[in-house]
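sry for the spam today, last one i promise. struct tokens for design, 304 residues
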């Protein structure tokens, strides 16, 4: 039994108590699941016909088209939010007060407005005939403001000595930001950036308010226009569409984990060379000793 810096290791009584709580919590959770399944079964939501609708080619095609539409909007919003986030972060850290004030006002304004209102306002005011672009632009504006704050926090986390050293080398402010500060900020804040991208992916479901045919809008149309024995398959549709959302978010999170691990394994900095014993007049013994470090070619050059 060992203690942690954050908390003391539980004693024998605490271990028993925690196990009892875990068993009780598990039983309660299983009981809630059983009650939910029984109620859904009594209402007929778990009948085979409610799930058999997803074997229809038309419904499968609609879901596939909805997934593609969702990924299109997400791709545009992801790129737009990252680009806007970098611009706003740099502007907010600018030495020019008007630029800094304008960026701060923009960020605080659109972070305060509900995302649904932003999307609807962009659609009604500018892009009524282009729902995909309206959704992507609304997502880009809101998430770009969030990403700007994330990047600004990452830049501020870089030790000041690195900035001062870069200026001492004669680098301009643009070079310091682009070559020294921003790369380290992105690397430090990468988990948060990817987490916000996952939020962006889920927020594409708000496209239903502007009738964009993404997953949620398609699920609503399927559930409200398909009857099975006089009932509508809302539960089965929600479960299937929700599973697709979970799968996409898990894939994005796995990609983020892979990128983060790859970045940690990346070799950065200046690698130190291995020390090599000098070749002297000791003859063949010195040449053999140097071959282990220089290789056969290096040893031949040394003997020549």
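last one done:
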């Amino acid at each position: 039994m060992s203690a942690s810096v954050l908390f003391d290791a539980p004693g024998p009584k605490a271990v028993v108590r925690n196990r009892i709580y875990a068993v009780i919590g598990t039983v309660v959770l299983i009981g809630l699941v059983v009650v939910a399944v029984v109620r859904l079964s009594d209402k007929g939501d778990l009948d085979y016909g409610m799930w058999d609708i997803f074997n229809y080619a038309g419904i499968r095609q609609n879901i596939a088209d909805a997934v593609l539409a969702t990924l299109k909007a997400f791709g545009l919003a992801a790129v737009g939010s990252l680009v806007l986030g970098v611009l706003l972060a740099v502007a907010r850290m600018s030495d020019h007060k008007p630029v800094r004030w304008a960026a701060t006002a923009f960020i605080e304004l659109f972070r305060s407005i509900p995302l649904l209102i932003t999307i609807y306002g962009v659609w009604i005011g500018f892009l009524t005939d282009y729902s995909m672009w309206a959704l992507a632009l609304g997502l880009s504006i809101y998430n770009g403001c969030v990403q700007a704050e994330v990047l600004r926090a990452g830049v501020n986390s870089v030790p000041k000595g690195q900035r001062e050293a870069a200026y001492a080398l004669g680098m301009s402010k643009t070079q310091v930001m682009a070559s020294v500060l921003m790369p380290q900020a992105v690397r430090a804040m990468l988990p948060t950036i990817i987490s916000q991208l996952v939020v962006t992916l889920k927020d594409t479901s708000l496209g239903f308010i502007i009738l964009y045919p993404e997953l949620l809008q398609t699920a609503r149309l399927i559930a409200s226009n398909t009857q099975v024995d006089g009932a509508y398959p809302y539960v089965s549709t929600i479960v299937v569409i929700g599973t697709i959302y979970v799968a996409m978010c898990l894939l994005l999170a796995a990609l983020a984990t892979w990128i983060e691990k790859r970045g940690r394994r990346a070799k950065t900095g200046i690698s130190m060379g291995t020390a090599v014993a000098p070749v002297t007049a000791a003859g063949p013994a010195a040449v053999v000793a140097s071959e282990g470090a220089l290789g056969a070619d290096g040893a031949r050059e040394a003997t020549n």
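The longest helix spans residues 57-92. ok im logging off now
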